[in-house]
Amino acid sequence: MPRPYVICHMIPSLDGRIVTAKWGMAKRGYDAYERTHKALAYDAWIIGRVSMAPYAGKSRIPKRKDDAQMPRTDFVAPDARAPYAIGIDPSGKLAWKVNNVEGEHAITVLTEAVSDDYLAFLRARGVSYVFGGRRAIDLPRVLEKLRKLFGIRRLALEGGGKINGHFAKADLIDEMSVIVAPVLDGSAGTPTLIDIPGGRQTVRALKLLSCESLGGDLVWLRYKVRR
Ligand SMILES: NC(=O)c1ccc[n+]([C@@H]2O[C@H](COP(=O)([O-])OP(=O)(O)OC[C@H]3O[C@@H](n4cnc5c(N)ncnc54)[C@H](OP(=O)(O)O)[C@@H]3O)[C@@H](O)[C@H]2O)c1
Fold it and tell me: Would the pTM count as exceeding 0.70?
């Protein structure tokens, strides 16, 4: 079954940290990230639950009046169309305020362990969802579903470190697109470009595709993952 081509697009410090909040990064840095993100010509972008929380916003998950079980089947909302904004949220913590992120239709990746109330809430909000497994997320299967159900061929993987680590562990990253921010962060124990769960990683060699200076001391590096 075909899966989307995955490009991991990030803006780390020179030493690989990714929490930008304390960098005092000029607007130019954020603008460069957004501009290059658009240049990837993606059908969808995907981020982890922690990174998606500020975009999803906050709302109340209502308790249903009836107790009929909700089916654990994938849901494609009637107005779903590309480009898509996807979050991986195994236990259903994102309280979506609307069903899009800046106009891009929201899809969430869940496990079957989420509550019936939460599924009813997503349907009522019009947020599409796919199941990634019973208790854990099977990423290769999720990518196949995203291709089949939504026609996604080019997927931008945009952090944080944990989701990138899950993709790297499953060897699902095809390309790296990195804007190096002109900062040395140095904080130990904070998210980095790729944080592999369980620590162990298959090392992957990279082939340089392009190297571009973006002004403001920013450099955009693109690498293909060698297989
Ligand atoms: N500089 C940059 O380019 C950049 C880009 C993006 C984000 N960030 C920063 O990165 C930080 C967050 O990074 P993070 O590593 O802590 O979190 P993250 O990757 O955004 O989210 C991690 C969470 O997503 C869920 N998840 C993702 N993939 C999964 C998988 N395959 N299987 C199971 N669960 C999965 C889990 O949710 P549960 O915990 O609910 O199980 C996991 O704890 C934020 O500060 C954000 O601002 C920086």
Answer: yes
